[in-house]
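Page 37, top half.
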Amino acid sequence: MISWLPVDAVAAGQLGFPDTPSARAADALCREASEGFLANHQLRSYLWAGVLGRARGIAVDHESLFVAAALHDLGLTDRFRGDRCFEVVGGDAAATFLAGLGWSQDRAEVVRRAIILHIEPSVPIEAGPVAHVLDLGISVDVSGSRLDEVPADIRADVVSAVPRLDFKRRMTEVLRGDAEARPECATALWFTEIDLAGRIANAGFED
């Protein structure tokens, strides 16, 4: 069962979402702005990130990690999509949202930077634990990278609680549309240079 848990319980390894006002607000925005398949992807990304971060012994602010995961694809939604690269749009939207919740500029910047960096091929730990661990979690969900590092029972629990909803097909369509609309952005390079569509299709999930 995946539910809302105290932050210390999540940090200690229990599978769930951090139960804080900011996390709840980010979850609500995620669900309001995103179609179901995209909202679920963002929430699963947090769960994978938490598992891999703990396995590596990386201490991370789980509230910030959850908010970054829940909002990392805002730039792909109709509500927030703009003329700039989607990761920049999403990062800026998240920072504005967090400012409205009273977060300090420095703490909001950690989330903003993590969202902007998540489109990179890899995000090193030097970029900060939130950005690094978020990248690990997103990679699991999109391409199946490091999926073998997640215990089979946890894999089953995550996908059962937060279904993929035809994620491979629908995410490929959304990202391809973004790449065609903004060929100067990193998404377009992922399609032409590293076969993003193939990576999504071959991820180790049954959609």
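Page 37, bottom half:
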Amino acid sequence: MDTRASISAILDQAYAARRAQDVETIAALFTPDGHFEANGNAPAKLHVERISALKGLFDAFEVVQFHEHCRVIDPPRAVVHWRGTFRARNGRLGEADVLDLFELRDGKIAAATTFYDTAYAAALSAPT
């Protein structure tokens, strides 16, 4: 059974890897049947799909600064609200709030959904 402490440790690993742009480490934290979804896009269910979706997000926006506002863990689920300073591929910097929802199973992430302001992200990443 996943405990608050074990879930928190997995989230710590995931956010450290996010800040390091380490797609492989995050992908390895998922269950084989786990899925990743960003703002209602089609869920990435296969390992290669998760890597592709995460890589696309990481390539589009580098996390320059990270501040976690709150983390609520109610096993097997967790919610993390955080604020980041992001550098878009075009070099622009911006700040935004992000909300991540997780479901964990047997020490792995079974589902992760991230929510962010897509209009702001599009404006920030628009060609200069």
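Margin note: The CA atoms of residues 22 and 65 lie 16 Å apart.
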